Amino acid sequence: MDAAADAATIIQIAQATQQVLNAGLVYAKRYTNAEKSCKLLQYDLRCVLATANIAIDALTRCSSLGKDPNIDDRLVQWFSSDEPKKCLDMLKEMEGLITGPNRTQEVLAKIRFAIWGEDKIKDAIALFDKHRAYFHFLLSADTWNDIKDVKERQEVAEGLLKHIDGENKDIQEGVKTVANEIAEITEGVKTVATEIAEDREERKKEFDRDQVTGFLQWLDGLDCTTKHEATHSLRQPDTCTWLPKTEKYQSWKRGGKPFLWLGGKAGSGKSVLASAVIDDLQRGQIDEEVLAYFYCDFRDERSVNAHEVLRSLLAQLLRHAALDRVDCRDAVPDLVQRKEKGASPPNDINLLIPLVLSAAKLHQLPVIVVDALDECGDVEKLLDALKQLNDGHIRLFVTSRLEQAIRERFAGLPCIPLDAMGDAISADMKLHIIKELDGRPQFRILEAGLKTEIRSALLAGADGMFRWVQCQIDTLAECPSAGDVREALKSLPIGLDTTYQRILLAIDRRRVEIMEALRIDLGKSTLNNEMAPMHETNLLRACGSLVSHDEETGIVTLSHFSVKEYLTGELILTQLPRYHINWQGAHAQLARSCIHYLSLDLGYLGFVNDEGPIVIPSTATPFLSNARPLLLNYALTNGFEHLAHLGVGNELVFDNMKVLQADIQQHPSKWERIRTEFSLEYQFWSTHCSLHWSNLKLDFMFYILIRFAPALLLEKFLDHGSPMPKDGTNSLLYAASFGKPHHAWILLSRGTSADQEGLLADGSRRALPLTIAVELEHDELVDLFLVARSRVPQQLFDSAFSWNTPFPLRIIRKLLHTNEFVHWVFTHQDKFLLHETILRWGSAVEDNDILVDVLHRLVEVGEDPLVCNHNGQTPLCVATTVGHIPVVQYLLTFPILLPPHILFTAVTAWSHQAQMTSMLIDKGAGVHILNHNGDSLLHVIMHHLDGDNYLQVAKRLIDAGCNPSLCNSQGSTPLHIAVTGGHISIVESLLSLNIPLPDNILLTAVNAESHEVQMMCMLIDKGADVHILDSDGDGCKEACCDLLLHNLLGNTPLHIAVEEGHIFIVEYLLSLDIQLPHNILLTAVTAWSHEVQMMCMLIEKGADVHILDSDGDGLLHDIMLYNLDEGDCLQVAKRLIGAGCDPLLHNPLGSTPLNIAIKQGHISIVEYLLSLNIPLPHNALFTAVETKVHQAQMMQMLINKGANVHHVLGSTRSTVLHDIIAQHTSQSSTSLQNLLEVVKILVDSGSQPA
To answer: Are the C-beta atoms of 809 and 800 separated by less than 8 Å?
Structure first.
């Protein structure tokens, strides 16, 4: 590899990076609102620039990358990839985004520059983030440090010329040039490391660990660490090693493809492979790379919700940033505000997706792994979210079954199907079986031959399913003898469903043993000790591979997702219907058992005394002494949750609840001891809804049914026996606390009063149901209680109209049509409620009609729309300042005398300046008013407005009679102010209004803050006086002499005039016989207009036709690539070739102009080039395969010109006929017809179809 050439490439990257930085700084200077975006842009690009500079210095000290032992292998690999070119292309595209739009966009709008500003910088940042993977080598701190170490180890440049032959003078000169350019770039990079370090230190100073920790705790992201450790423990040593070696995985890990999906059937070991990926990433984690992972697990209800997946990933990404002492809250300000308002963490997928994307941008190389997508309950939402997270910045690795919905969503994305990895899976499975046979005592005594038989039989029947293998090993371990093992091997079940069926049939044979476990008898007030199992292993052994037992926690769960699917599916109904699990019946049994168990504990069991700790009776067996606290814990924390799944027909649960209520009343202190001991962080016992049963003030039955049960069950309870609520309680408060409008409606329809206070669910205070519904922002409940004639406490209005009101305006509006509100307004007439409401809500409310309704109601009850506040402002002035159109329209319906300076308020409003100004002018507002500086309205908008709004305002003012040529007290017109500020878009727009040009406008343009050249060209185009003299007697020519130099971007005025398409300016400059820049024709190719005339004119003046662009393309290549009209392209091509441009020139990709003309479908140009006796490329027909237009015509012409239809590609041995059919993807009738035509042409010309 040529070190000098590579150094030249990295120099181009450094220069391009510097140009993007310069462009960003120029725009940040012009637009103050772009400063924040500019800083974000600078942070990464400065790192790129600094690393590139160090790499340049290292490269100039060696002659060959591959032979120098001091050069890092990663640098060699990077240069041998296509990433350097992609980096360069991306930087050029970023510069183009910032410096200006393309011509097609420009034709649609006259305002060229005002709309660029911050949006364009943000677009450049988004583009960089999308393709950040290209830059990961340059952005890595590890790369930076390693290359720097290499540079320090290398010899100084004195040995460079010794390694270069005297014949390589060009290389020597290139190296010298490189050294000079390094010196220039180094000067601009010296402070980068310091600035980055200072920036990081500054952020660390502002870091408040306690607040960040509290914020992350509030976010409550599910932690999957334990699940990962458990899954990792299932992996046998030396297995799963094949996955990191696959080409797709390595490409994904390097950042080549940001998404990778591992798909396989049920039980094929996907979760174990996911744990291996996580371990691989953690072991080989590089600087700036962070990992977030999640396991969807059907055993954990939280983990199978899409919003829990996203919230966990969000929390992990934010926590990683916090570990680097970065205040991660800055990336999610909306979330911080949500917490400060006292709201709970978001569950809305649409809110969480952008939050995860924002958190990911805190890191240079974020990686996310999500396992078992198919186990997610709302998998469609999760798939949509993952597709949106696949933005190119985040690297995503996911696993799932190959279900149809998932295949459709991930179509076209990289996938590793486990079905295609048979050999690797079989090798892992073999290791797993060997470990199991050697590790279990039951198998150790077997002879080697039998072990081989077991291994062979299991491998033969596995069909890639580790789960199936594990079930068979568990079953074989129960065989009493070697003979029984051999018999079992002869009839191994096929698939998982048959396996599970056999396990259940085996349970049938041990039914008596299983029944002993059902110790809770719902028909008795004691436990049935006769039914107790001797030991827990009896149960576990009977259930076999269907369940898993965690010895540490004592929890038994279904062992695999496929077990749950089988037990609840349709197949078991036909095979073993008695084992089919009906969800509602199961929930009813569990709910009743838990409630009954609590009653037994309060009375018979006595786990908890009135005083002292929880005790276990000495008569209990060891098994029961362990199980009782666990079952009590489950009954308290999860037992009532089962009520949510019940419908009518489950009235027996009411009897159990009544018994429990009676037991609680009989043993209040014991119940309090239970509640205290077992108040864990579960939903039932959370701070928000904890129970205070010790004083027996709350109504147990209503609380439980409203909190947990569906509304139909509550209704059935009320029909069951017309129960009377407890004195001092109001069950509507429970409905308000838990957001249950249907429950509330049922209670109201049965006579419960909405106007009666009661004790809150947490026992903290007494309140009306309406108060709680308002505080918790439950719209439907507020409406219900108001319809039910609940009174409205005065303190609700006090809170609603305070500046820091916690209530949204939609809720406030509901309270205003009450008698209490009329009374409240009467007692608060000195509060300027109209003014304060507009200021508080004018820029925050989303539904404009709500605010107008509120204001209208205030006026109805006595607020004066004409009164001035303490600042002398009417409500109209306040609304105009805020920029709230509907409110202004509403206030203008009153007989209001418009304040004289109202238009000054309108043109500087917070928003909607154009609409506001037009509306007020229509109502008679004066446009000739001046402020204290003598500025007119047009002067003011030159200072204050931004974006395309100002043009509409200026037009409306001028149309209404505002003088655009009026001078202020400084002698300046609005145009002077715009020119002085360098606001080129504003100037262009004003000129479009055909206003007269002041005599001295060019002198003002000479001293403009920016864009002097463009400004002057534009003004000259409009007829500005070029003969004007300044106060020193100098004319524009003398004042502009410095403008003949190159600017920061390396452009002369001629470059800019050519690029802008100012044909007359170009003609004028060429008439001065100025020296043509060597690259001027490259600029002309991309001119916004008059490209053809411009290039012909420049060629006639002797412009260099041999110039190459940065990609190594010549002018003939470029004119065909830049979408010129084919006729124009042909005209320019003839002029270029006539002037000596080489039509046989190959670019770095090996393409000649003829190749490109064929690919672009330029029939006439191909004919012209072939008429020059240019040899037809051997691969011409293969190039024509890529032609998007005139493909059949192009093929026919090339064949007529002698193209060989029998030519084959060396690597694939494919003919053109193979290639055209293989690459065709469109199914449209037109496209298929074209394909058929091309195939006929090829076959007719001798191509062999067989």
So the answer is: no
Distance (Å, rounded) from C-alpha 1248 to C-alpha 1218? Answer: 10
Q: Quote the tokens at residue 22.
A: 């310069």
Reported for 819-828, long-range contacts at CB under 8 A and 24+ positions apart, including other chains, are: 820/791, 820/792, 820/793, 820/794, 821/792, 821/797, 821/857, 821/861, 822/861, 824/794, 824/797, 825/858, 825/861, 825/862, 825/863, 826/861, 826/862, 828/801
List the beta bridge partners of residue 608.
Answer: 614
Query: Tokens at residue 234, please?
Result: 């299932």
CA distances from 552 to 541, 549, 626 (A): 18, 9, 12
pLDDT, one tens digit per residue, over 512-568 is 444 444 556 566 655 655 555 545 666 777 777 888 877 776 778 888 888 888 888
Say how far apart CA 1114 and CA 1126 lie, in whole Å: 18
Reading phi first (left if > 0) and then psi (alpha if -120 to 50, else beta), residue 1190 is in: left
Do 973 and 964 form a contact (C-beta atoms < 8 A)? yes
CA 187 – CA 806 distance, rounded (Å):
54
Instruction: Indicate the SS3 state at residue 556.
Output: strand
Residue 140 reports pLDDT greater than 60: no
Question: Which phi and psi (to 5°) does residue 500 adopt?
Answer: -65, -35
Q: Is 84 helix (H, G, I), strand (E, B) or coil?
A: helix
Alpha helices in 1027-1062 (DSSP H): 1036-1039, 1053-1060
Distance CA 151, CA 153 (A): 5
Strands 259-263 and 289-295 come out as unpaired
Q: Reduced to 3 states, what is the DSSP secondary structure of residue 557?
A: strand
Burial letters for 876-894: b for 16+ Cβ neighbours within 10 Å, e otherwise? bbbbbbbbbbebbebbbee
Burial (CB < 10 A; 0-12, 13-18, 19+), residue 8, is: middle
pLDDT by residue (tens digit) across 1073-1120? 788 888 889 888 888 777 888 889 899 889 999 999 888 999 998 888
Chain mean position to CA 954: 39
DSSP 549: E
Amino acid type, 33: N
Q: How would you class 735 by CB atoms within 10 Å of its CB: exposed for 0-12, middle for 13-18, buried for 19 or more?
A: buried
Contact 1244, 1220 (CB under 8 A): no
3-state SS class at 1126? helix
In the DSSP assignment, the letter for residue 327 is -
Buried-exposed string 124-138: b where 16+ CB fall within 10 A, e elsewhere = bbbbbbebbbbbbbb
Backbone angles phi, psi at 293, to 5 degrees: -140, 160
Collapsing DSSP states into helix, strand and coil, what is residue 387?
helix
Residue tagged 């979330």 (tokens):
335
DSSP string, 14-63: HHHHHHHHHHHHHHHHH-GGGHHHHHHHHHHHHHHHHHHHHHHHHHTT-S
Query: What DSSP state is assigned to residue 687?
Result: G
Residue reference for tokens 């039980």: 267
Residue carrying the six token digits 């390589």 = 168
Cβ atoms of 626 and 633 within 8 Å: the answer is: no
What type of residue sits at position 303? Answer: S
CA 12, CA 587: separation in Å to the nearest integer? 69
Torsion of CA 1022, 1027, 1032, 1033, to 10 degrees: 180
**Phi, psi of 618, deg, nearest 5:** -70, -15
- Provide the sign of the torsion angle of the four alpha carbons 1005, 1007, 1012, 1013, taken in this order: positive
DSSP code for 343: P
CB 739 within 8 Å of CB 778 = yes
Q: Find, among 446, 610, 621, the residue nearest to 527 by Cα.
A: 621
Give residue 33's pLDDT band: very low, low, confident or very high (50, 70, 90): low
DSSP state of 804: T
Q: What is the DSSP letter of 467?
A: H
